[in-house]
Specification:
Blueprint (H helix, E strand, L loop, with lengths): L20 H14 L5 H14 L4 H9 L6 H12 L5 H13 L7 H12 L2 H14 L1
Helix pairs in contact: 1-2, 2-3, 2-4, 3-4, 4-5, 4-6, 5-6, 6-7
Length: about 140
């Protein structure tokens, strides 16, 4: 989800043009050239498009994600969500471990994606581990 703000944006939203991996790469290149990668909202849109909007673009999303020095909670949740919906949902669990090691705290949006990954993995043990974390964090 992209948040609306009252201040006027300096650039147009990119997600309407992200319809393929090729278009995403072109937009990413344009963002590098124009310096938009330093703009957090544009970076969030790029990660959202690659992890959620475009089918089979999750590996590209992970490449982008690995280049972000200090991802915010929205970016963490977006890549975890994207990974949970792929054929390799264990990536979502790995990303959550990285999130915890980085010191970022999960919120109420993080755990439903992880529980979905546990369901796809058919792992009730892992699901119960996350359920315990949910109860602990409130």
């Amino acid at each position: 989800m992209i948040r609306k703000s009252r201040r006027k944006r300096e650039h147009a939203e990119i997600w309407p043009w992200c319809r393929s991996l090729r278009a995403l790469r072109q937009i990413h290149g344009l963002m590098v050239v124009r310096g938009f990668l330093s703009d957090p909202s544009t970076l969030r849109e790029l990660i959202f498009c690659s992890a959620i909007s475009i089918p089979f673009a999750m590996p590209y999303a992970l490449q982008l994600f690995d280049q972000i020095p200090h991802p915010d909670l929205f970016i963490w949740n977006t890549v975890i969500r994207g990974a949970a919906h792929t054929a390799t949902p264990l990536d979502a669990v790995s990303l959550f471990s990285r999130m915890e090691l980085s010191g970022a705290r999960p919120n109420k949006l993080t755990f439903p994606f992880l529980l979905r990954a546990c369901t796809k993995l058919s792992s009730p043990f892992l699901g119960s581990q996350f359920h315990s974390k949910i109860l602990k964090l409130g």
